[in-house]
Amino acid sequence: MRGLQRGDTIFRLVTQGAAVAVLLILGGVIASLVMGSLPAIQAFGFGFLSTEVWNPVTDRFGALAPIYGTLITASIAMIVAVPIGLGIAIFLTELCPYMLRRPVGIAIELLAGIPSIIYGIWGLFVLAPFLQKNVQPALIGFFADVPVLSTLFAGPPYGIGMLTAGVILAIMVLPFVTSISRDVFETVPPVLKEAAYGVGCTTWEVVRFVVIPYTRVGVIGGIMLGLGRALGETMAVTFVIGNAHRISASLFAPGTTISASIANEFTEAVGDLYTSALIALGLILFVITFIILAIARYLLMRLQLKEGT
């Protein structure tokens, strides 16, 4: 009996130590980012967040362009990936022939295992030329007379730019959205779907009124996981976004993201202020990710409370 109690105590202490270690590592990361970014914060203040200029020669740095590029490319990625990912998950669980479910599911999951550098090379040499020659000119002509959209899809068609980066990110986050959505869709009790079919519901009505409401917490969790990947992706975006520290209303224009700026310039950073500005970008990305995940957790909590009532 004492041996069992001793083993249980050791197990509890080990697991508790692992949990505390995670918190200590997270605290250490936050502390190092804050300390490293202090020179930039002291030099530029809140103007660092609202300034577009990025000039290492004159030691003038602003994070507005990387922040803008990060949010825009991540938004494009989720706008493209979420409908496609949910559609694939619905097809695999409700419509796909049984013999094809496993091969198609494995093929989707393999996309998550491809290194980001491969996505970047493919995007630079295949996707970008394709968009430049076929897609971007068509979008420019189609939306030429449409207010707002004519600005978003304005030329010239560079091929590389924020739209291309967003599409690459969409392909990269698609496996996460699809796999998690498929897994949670499969948890729906068959009796609920059979009852809906029994009263004459179509497949679309079953998905809309039974499957998605039953699994919406898990679906939102998968979407947030994909969004977290999109916000922090580096190498693939660096290849195709153009790496220009400027803000443009056109989605075809070159831009940059926080992670791409850090990857491109950290090895070339000369001087404490330059290095501190790059570390400050990392701190900003951490804060953005934390805020988005906190909002996601709040939404999930609200949904769970509604389900409980």
Automatic annotation (TrEMBL):
Provide the alphabetized UniProt keywords.
Cell inner membrane, Cell membrane, Membrane, Phosphate transport, Transmembrane, Transmembrane helix, Transport
Q: Where in the cell is it found?
A: Cell inner membrane; Cell membrane
Q: How does it sit in the membrane?
A: Multi-pass membrane protein
Q: Where do transmembrane segments lie in this chain? A: 21-47, 67-92, 104-128, 160-180, 277-300
Q: Where is the ABC transmembrane type-1 domain?
A: 67-296
User: Which Gene3D superfamilies does its entry note?
Assistant: MetI-like
Return the Pfam families for the record.
BPD_transp_1
Similarity annotation: Belongs to the binding-protein-dependent transport system permease family. CysTW subfamily.
Which NCBIfam families does the entry link to? Answer: phosphate_pstC (TIGR02138)
Quote the function comment for this protein.
Answer: Part of the binding-protein-dependent transport system for phosphate; probably responsible for the translocation of the substrate across the membrane.
Q: What is this protein called?
A: Phosphate transport system permease protein
* Species annotation: Methylocapsa polymorpha
